[in-house]
């Protein structure tokens, strides 16, 4: 099977980069050895793997930094030389020069190397010295192999509502396709620009757009994924219609604009809509963050082409707080259960109080009824004495009259209240 030719996003000329070695501030003998080293590295003689031009480019840049720092033949290096290099990197005394635009002027500025950049400088130097000194570099490379403790930088990403803003600000089907597919697929820049028309499949009826990112164009694993974002179907179908009307072939790249032009468009769009710079890999970070709480770890690895043992999905899962989500749910459930238990206890207490009250009330009623009966008996006895003995001296002292039913009711109500 013939593989399609990969479209590089950067036209790097390794021969062009190596031609600049002649201008490096190092001994002439060392310049010749550097060229031999990179020729052998590219062929796979040093690592056992053939190195692509894209990988070689930063190797050349990083080796230049360390060799120009020494300004002597590699065969003359001592432990003090490599110790000094590590000290300068550690204390940010060795810096890199960058160019930045401030208004209409381009200004050169010195800035420290990032920690990962320092490691890359040391790693390519170790590889070069091992090759150059034929296995006699252990003493001078020992310090270079010391690994610093690195703290992972917080992942920069855009939230989904920011993506909606970028999408709405687009003025053409091509621009909307770029935003939607970069965000939804999380494709790397080179993967995106190598998507062919045959790699995109619209759903038949209900369903989602299917996208194949072929392994021959990928830095990692190839994969076929679905595009679930609510703007993806619209963006893909509209742009596919446009490209078909333009006569695009199945093997042709679906996106017509090149990397450089698209990178500039993204930068302008980001500053206009979000007041910040945006770039290709920011969309990959944003995509992985968006899907981290919607897919499991294995599904994330498949979607973004990571190996199953890769630490990458864990960074995004941690970023979205997925590790705490289950705990939050448990604590929330626990809090609800505690409240339910407290309500149940209060309900039981109130029930007991009600039962005690009813029992006490019933006892008091019985006492009142008993007293009323005794009162009525006592009243009847007094009335009988008064009526049967007209000469009873108490008749003139105590005048006892039989109470009316209304008076009896009033007395009873008064006793009940008391």
SSE topology sketch:
Blueprint lengths: L13 H6 L8 H16 L9 H18 L8 H12 L4 E8 L2 E8 L2 H18 L5 H4 L18 H10 L3 H13 L3 H5 L6 E2 L7 E5 L9 E5 L4 H14 L13 H15 L6 H12 L5 H8 L7 H8 L2 H67 L4 H5 L7 H13 L1
Antiparallel strand pairs: 1-2, 3-4, 4-5
Helix pairs in contact: 3-5, 7-8, 8-10, 8-12
Nutshell version of this structure?
The chain has 418 residues and is mainly alpha-helical. The chain has helices spanning 14-19, 28-43, 53-70, 79-90, 115-132, 138-141, 160-169, 173-185, 189-193, 232-245, 259-273, 280-291, 297-304, 312-319, 322-388, 393-397, 405-417; strands at residues 95-102, 105-112, 200-201, 209-213, 223-227.
Word description of this protein:
The structure is a single chain. The protein is mainly alpha-helical and about 425 residues long. It contains 17 helices and five strands. The protein has helices at about 15-20, 30-45, 55-70, 80-90, 115-130, 140, 160-170, 175-185, 190-195, 230-245, 260-275, 280-290, 295-305, 310-320, 320-390, 395, 405-415, and strands at about 95-100, 105-110, 200, 210-215, 225. Strands 3-4-5 form a three-stranded antiparallel sheet. It has a two-stranded antiparallel ribbon with strand order 1-2. α7 packs antiparallel against α8 (about 175-185) and α8 packs across α12 (about 280-290). The protein is elongated, with a radius of gyration of 44 Å. The N and C termini lie far apart (about 105 Å). Mean pLDDT is about 85; it is low at about 395-400.
- The mean pLDDT is 84
Number of helices: 17
- Counting helices, strands and paired strands, the structural category is mainly alpha
Radius of gyration: 44 Å
Low-confidence stretches: 394-400
Strand count, sense and barrel status of the largest sheet are: 3 strands, antiparallel
Strand order of the largest sheet: 3-4-5
Please state the oligomeric state of the protein chains shown: single chain
Helix amount: 55-70%
Shape assignment: elongated
Could you give the distance between the termini? 106 Å
């Amino acid at each position: 099977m013939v593989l399609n030719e990969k479209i590089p996003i950067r036209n790097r000329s390794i021969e062009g980069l190596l031609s600049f070695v002649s201008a490096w501030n190092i001994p002439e003998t060392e310049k010749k050895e550097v060229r031999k080293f990179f020729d052998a590295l590219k062929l796979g003689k040093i690592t056992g793997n053939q190195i692509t031009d894209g990988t070689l480019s930063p190797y050349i840049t990083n080796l230049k930094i360390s060799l120009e720092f020494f300004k002597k033949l590699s065969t003359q290096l001592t432990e003090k030389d490599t110790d000094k290099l590590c000290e300068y990197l550690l204390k940010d005394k060795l810096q890199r020069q960058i160019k930045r635009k401030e208004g209409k002027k381009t200004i050169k500025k010195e800035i420290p190397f990032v920690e990962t950049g320092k490691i890359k400088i040391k790693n390519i130097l170790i590889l070069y010295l091992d090759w150059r000194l034929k296995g006699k570099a252990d003493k001078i490379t020992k310090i270079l192999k010391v690994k610093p403790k690195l703290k992972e930088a917080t992942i920069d990403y855009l939230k989904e509502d920011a993506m909606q803003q970028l999408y709405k600000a687009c003025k053409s089907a091509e621009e909307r396709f770029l935003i939607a597919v970069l965000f939804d697929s999380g494709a790397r820049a080179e993967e995106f620009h190598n998507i062919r028309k045959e790699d995109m499949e619209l759903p038949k009826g209900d369903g989602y757009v299917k996208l194949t990112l072929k392994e021959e164009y990928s830095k990692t694993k190839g994969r076929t994924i679905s595009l679930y974002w609510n703007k993806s179907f619209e963006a893909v179908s509209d742009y596919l219609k446009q490209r078909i009307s333009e006569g695009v072939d199945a093997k042709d790249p679906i996106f017509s604009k090149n990397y450089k032009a698209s990178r500039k468009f993204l930068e302008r769009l980001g500053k206009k809509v979000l007041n910040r710079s945006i770039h290709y890999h920011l969309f990959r970070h944003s995509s992985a963050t968006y899907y981290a709480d919607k897919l499991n770890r294995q599904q994330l690895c498949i979607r973004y082409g990571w190996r199953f043992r890769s630490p990458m999905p864990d960074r995004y899962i941690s970023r979205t707080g997925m590790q705490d989500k289950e705990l939050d749910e448990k604590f929330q459930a626990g809090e609800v259960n505690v409240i339910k238990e407290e309500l149940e206890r209060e309900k039981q207490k109130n029930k007991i109080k009600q039962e005690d009250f009813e029992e006490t009330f019933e006892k008091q009623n019985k006492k009142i009824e008993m007293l009323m009966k005794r009162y009525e008996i006592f009243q009847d006895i007094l009335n009988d004495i008064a009526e049967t003995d007209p000469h009873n001296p108490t008749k003139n002292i105590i005048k006892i009259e039989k109470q009316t039913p209304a008076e009896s009711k009033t007395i009873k109500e008064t006793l009940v209240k008391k």
